[in-house]
Amino acid sequence: EDTNASASPFSNPKYVCFLPVPRQHSNMHITDQLACIEDFYFLSGDESRALAMRRSLCVIAALPRRLTRIQDIQSLHNMGQSSRAIVKEILDKGRSTAATCMANDPKYTTMLQFRSIYGCGQRIAQALYERGYRTIAEICADRSWVADFPLSAERLEWGLTLHTELGSQVPRDEVKQLGDCVYKYANTILPGVMMTIGGGYRRGKPASKDCDFIFTHNDSDAIEFLLPQLLLQLQVAGLVVHANTQVGHNTPERIINYHYPIISDFTHRPLLDCTDRSFTIFKSPVSGLHRRIDIICVPRTQYAYTVLAWTGSKQFNRSLRLYAERELGWTLSSHGLLQIYSESGDSEQQQQQHQHHQQKSEQLGRTHNG
Ligand code: TTP
Ligand code: MN
Ligand code: MN
Ligand code: MN
User: Fold this and answer.
1) Is the pTM of this model over 0.90?
2) CATH of the domain spanning 105-167
């Protein structure tokens, strides 16, 4: 399929989810600069360029040894022309001109500051910049922005008040201890609950920007009522000081999602990733600092998929879902693995694609069973 593939000494999967991407590796000097360029594009609102950089970053991070010759990555998937040019410049001169420019760009560095505030994403950082703000102190002093973001204002206020505390990372030990603490409350409300700590913790990171706790229970009806009760108890105890909660609505899609994670005769796309969750600010009894804790509650039938989705990384999920969709014809979400057929009669092309997917699925089944 790929005639140049043999030219590279490195393994060359089409999807980055098949690459081992360690946190520390032999090409940090390259990936640090790619990460900077990715982030610059992301904050500029250029998501497709940002994604291309992230995929190339994964490829470089997965290389088993220090890269010295650009030819060795010439034919690799997910290394586009512009990424290769950047890597070549780093190999030749040690620095990418683009990365250096971007790292010193005044608009970028200002937006980077703003984005470090909890509740401030790319969109709000951009809007604040355009409104003329240049420092966090200015945002604190002049609150006229509140009218611009009425829905996010409360979260931003918390973010500003607790900027230093929420900006500091939560060490692994504390994540674990906070997990034990929240679990005790949940298990008192609903005995027999199960909890997995997901996010960066589950990927082995030594410290995380937040904690991700995923709860389930074998009783699917009971778990539906856990989240509101748990939040109330944690608030009463003075542990949760702020919560941004999303619970699903009882639409037909939700009910189907809730009870049937694997659907093979579905004719329209069910809602994806509408799991009950609450993004909280938690006063940690461990460190005395305010910490971000995400609490997610799902029925037992969806638990594995939700744990997978909330373990991340974001790029791993994205790539895995793309692989499922393109190669297998499955839709992977935090609810389950869905196979969706079109309602109208299949065109010849759709039928062929379906056969292709069936074969791939069978191959995969065999591999996994044997
Ligand atoms: P994060 O907690 O944002 O990031 P992280 O845990 O990878 O990093 P850190 O350790 O520094 O906190 O997200 C964790 C995973 O949860 C991420 O892969 C994406 C997933 N996720 C969802 O599926 N839905 C959501 O709404 C959010 C916010 C995250
Ligand atoms: Mn996390
Ligand atoms: Mn999180
Ligand atoms: Mn749902």
Assistant:
1) no
2) 1.10.150.20
